[in-house]
Each structure stands twice: as structure tokens, then as C-alpha cells.
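Chain A, query sequence.
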Amino acid sequence: MGQLLRCLIFSMLTLNMSGCSDTIVKSFAFHPMRFNADHYNLDDSGVQDVEFTTEDQIRLHAFYLPNPDNKKLVLYFHGNFGHSLHRLNSAWHLAQTGVNVLLVGYRGYGRSEGEPSEDGVYNDAKAALRYATQELNFAPENIFVLGRSLGSAVAVDLAQEREFGGLILVGTFTSAHEVMSEVGMGWLRMFVNRRPFDQTAKLDRVTAPALFIHGERDRQIPLQLAETLYQNYPSPYKSMVTVAYAGHNDIFHHQRDKIWTRIAAFIDAPQKEKGRTEYWQDVQ
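Chain A, predicted structure.
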């Protein structure tokens, strides 16, 4: 935060905004945490540690949950805080629906090398896709991309001009500019000379069917941003699920089993339903 403050002060004094953009984006978009092999035990779990390398020679770590009898794979891109080990339980629930799951650790997160950046995490996603197609031998049409929060921007970027089976966007948004404005930090936009994580600008190059899932009480990424992205999403095969009483970080705690069942139905459907919206009341 000290670096960010110095950057803002320097920018205001010199009117040099361009040098501050990347610092602001990195400071607010990424909150990585590390772990090592001593922090967990995969014995008898069926989960595998895997590694692959990006085009810029960054070694990435991921968890692979195989289901050999199923030809479909979910690439799981998590949110901006913590690391992939925090999402392993969610990946396990997803794998229980019968699909294969590759839970990707971004650069700078968990056991992956490097430092996170917007272009960097996009490159991480491309490396994960290469690993999925070339090493794990999944066909692109059998690959579904699940992006949670920041991961939804990674998913949409990866889906450009690719024929995936579908996108699953959980806690998604239009662009980082709109997120900053909605949470009362719109003043920072004057220091950012581009539109980071702009999903709306990429939609005309995305054709995959999509399932949107969002918490009604999300205060970090308000529901209206997801609704705007949904309305502008070009594929006729799109659905949106709004979960009552759920916020941003607890969405899988509300209607958890029903959410995984809905995701499984989306993956299994031979033809995705058109324009379907659902509102789920929370049932204790």
C-alpha cells in the first residue's frame, strides 16, 4: 500500500497518470497468498498436483481432479484473494458431479512462480488450456471454463474466438472501472489510463453458451454488474441464477448442493436453454 500511496502522490504532483496504472491495478486486483507441499496431504484423495509452464516461462501449479469415465473438463479459475488450496473443497464438490476438474493457481499464487498481472493471468489461462488439450487430451468442445469473481474475466478472455462447451461465470462483472465506481472508489479511475479486466469489450468475440450465478446481496461486485454483462452476452444460450441472501464470498454456502446440480445440468445439456433466468430463495 505504501508503493500505491507514493504512486498516487507522484501522479497528482506531476500529472503523470500513466506510470501509476499498473500499480493501482495490481494493488487492488490481486491479493495472493502462498502455500507449499507441507500445507496439505493428497494421499487417498484422488487429487493430483500438476505443473505446466507459460509462454513466458513461468511455472504454474494446479490441482487436477480426474474422472476417467467422463470426457468433459472444467477449467476452474478462482478469485483474486488467497490461493487455489482455499478452493479445493469447491473443486471437489464440482468433481462429484462427474466431471474432470483442473483448478489453476495463477502466477504469484500458491505454489506458482512469478508475480500476478492482468496480462500474466491471461497467459496463465492459455497455458492451462494447452495443458488440458495437449497433455490431458480434452477436446475444446468438451471444456467448460468456470471463472469466479476475477476469474470470470480470465474465463471470458480465454473464450475469445474459441469453441468451448460453455462458460460458468460466478460473481462476475463488466469491467474493473465499474467495480471501482460501484464500491465507492471511482475516484481512482482518473489514475488508470485504460480499462482493466474489461469483459464487455471482448463479448463480440465470445460464442460459448454461458451460465451466470450471482449473489443477491453481493456488495463487492453488485448484482447489477453481472446483470449488465448477462444482458450484453451475445450467445442466445445463456442462463442466469440469482441466489437470495448470498453475498460475494459465501455464495457456495447458500444453496450449495443446488448450485452444483445446476452447474452439472448446464454441462450435461446437449443444447443450452435460451434466456432462462432463475431466482432462488434460500432454504435452510
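The first helix runs from residue 2 to 14. The longest strand covers residues 59-65.
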